[in-house]
Amino acid sequence: MPETVIEPAQSALLPVKGTDKSFPVRRVYCIGRNYAAHAVEMGHDPDKEPPFFFQKNPDNLDTSGTFPYPPKSADVHHEIELAVALKSGGTNIPLSEALDHVYGYAVALDMTRRDLQGEAKKMGRPWEVGKAFERSAPIGPLVPATECGHPDSGRVTLHVNGALKQDGDLNQLIWKVPEMISYLSDYFELAAGDVILTGTPAGVGPVSAGDVLEGHVDGFAPLSVKVV
Ligand code: MN
User: How far is the centre of ligand 1, averaged over its atoms, from the C-alpha of 216 (Å)?
Assistant: First the structure.
């Protein structure tokens, strides 16, 4: 490999539960409005429209347990989500083979500058300032599918300072994990290291410095994040 003129950036690494190994992240895809009740709270029709995706940057994933309140926003929201990590990929992946590409799952937060996202929506502009900012995706350890299987039901909750704010179930996902993988692979070449955030149930809301967010997905260790 030729010498590089600057230090190459380190790939984001997710710890893998029960091992001293880590999972190197290549890309992060996130689906929008994937629970009917959340689509309604955001002012949209919950009928099954084609899915849509946006991306975060791999280095937005953060395993530190703290979330620094980002600049340029006064309305930062929590979105609790199940994350899916791929061990392989490809294009035009059939539904029946989609889960073969999954390495494992984790509990994650899609932190959102809701005010900036709202402005972007209104003006028909891209969402990056609202979604893909520094440390905008706190995430817990990856659990290999060999250990947790492929969860398609299970309660998903988020508590803020002990109070229940978001409450849903993976069985309410409009687009299921295999459908998301298959759909994405029609538009992008998926590959090992790709992570997909699967959408958030209803109850999103603002956070403040000092808040403690605790995300639960049945079968996973809680993700605890302090807003600083
Ligand atoms: Mn989200």
Answer: 15
